[in-house]
Amino acid sequence: MAAAKTKTVWFCKACGNESPKWMGRCPACGEWNTMVEETVATGKKSGTQSVSVPGAGQKPMPLSEIDSTREQRISLNNAEVDRILGGGLVEGSLVLIGGEPGIGKSTLSLQIPLHCPNLKTLYVTGEESAGQVKLRAARIGGDDSNCMIYSETLMENIIAEARAMMPDLMIVDSVQTMFSTGVESSPGSVTQIKETAAMLLRLAKETGIPVILIGHITKEGSIAGPKILEHIVDVVLQFEGDNRGTYRLLRSIKNRFGSTSELAVFEMTGKGLREVSNPSEMLVPMHEDGLSGVAVSAMLDGTRPFLIEVQALVSSAAYGTPQRSATGFDARRLNMLLAVLEKRAGFKLSVKDVFLNMAGGLKVSDPACDLAVVAAVLSSNFDFAVQSDICFAGEVGLSGEIRPVAQADRRITEASRLGYKRIYISSYTSLDMEHEGIEVVKVADIPALCRSLFKG
Ligand code: TYD
Ligand code: MG
Question: Is 107's C-beta closer than 6 angstroms to any atom of ligand 1?
Fold first, then answer.
């Protein structure tokens, strides 16, 4: 066989964009210093081949005649994972589980087959030896009778093995360790990662085997990450949160078969990941009544309402420029809220340091948290505690008005269910139902909130 012709190209590690020359800034995603040099074969066989899907070569047909019963869902015996997948794993789908090292990707993906002895599983490990997987399985417990462990990193062998075995489920840990001989560059490079994913996608679509693929993300993004795969795969689940704590959050950021932004909460125990079906338990830690600087927000993550504790610390600035720091909340939004408090409600916060923290390592993007942030900041500033049975749901506008939020009824119902006695919402909210057992207080702006909250 004649040696394949090769050429050198540059890829962006962040988005996978290809460029014939090096550039300081990727023109596609705008990231700096992400271009890496790789060798690819020229000619017909390029690094990233087009993916053939079943039905290729068929004629166009009317939508009404297409059989949709093909979408079979497999339950993974894990209510939280099934839920964020949209009701189970779809046959022939490629699911990417991303997250930082040590967060629990391998644990979750091994736990699935151990808890589903009815599924014949092929677990491909490129990262740990079969012995290490065995040790982990012993920790997790469960039934390992139908789980095959395959320690291999060469994609051609893995695909051949999967086609021979035809498992009900296949897991590949991790995309960064796999390589194909069809691509010149080393494992973990952009071309290898794309090729690995394309080969697995072809396998999944042609055989109907669902494939769970694991991908590492590093904080610095120093290795080519799952980001470049997001458009190839069907579902992207991402672990977030703090891997030093015991709670792990798994979020669906893309799902061709269900809704996105769904969140599942797990607790890392000595025996693997435990499902936390009531996340408010962990997000509203128990504490003494009368603590200032804490307020509870009735927020919505995906489609699920839950309550989360917002903590603020306001203190006199030690240096000329006050510090502002936010964990789990957008720092620019915090600055905006502080400016609104200063300009529209007359609180002198420009000479104060403000620190904000969301409980549980959760990253919050729901604007309904604004009101709880404002309440926590004011509570800390005046050293006046917000009663622990009060919660908040409202967005704060630039003129200090409190704006209504989506699905207020569901938030109120959840707050009431968890024993909250009073909830502050916007005056402009229209409610569809009566709420018993909880006092719904409508406020129009920040001064009205302060009058109601800090009277007495
Ligand atoms: P792991 O699944 O190996 O992470 P990843 O594959 O995302 O890199 O996570 C392992 C971490 O979880 C490690 O710090 C050990 C801990 N762990 C437990 O606390 N309990 C357990 O039962 C298991 C299997 C792991
Ligand atoms: Mg791992």
Answer: yes
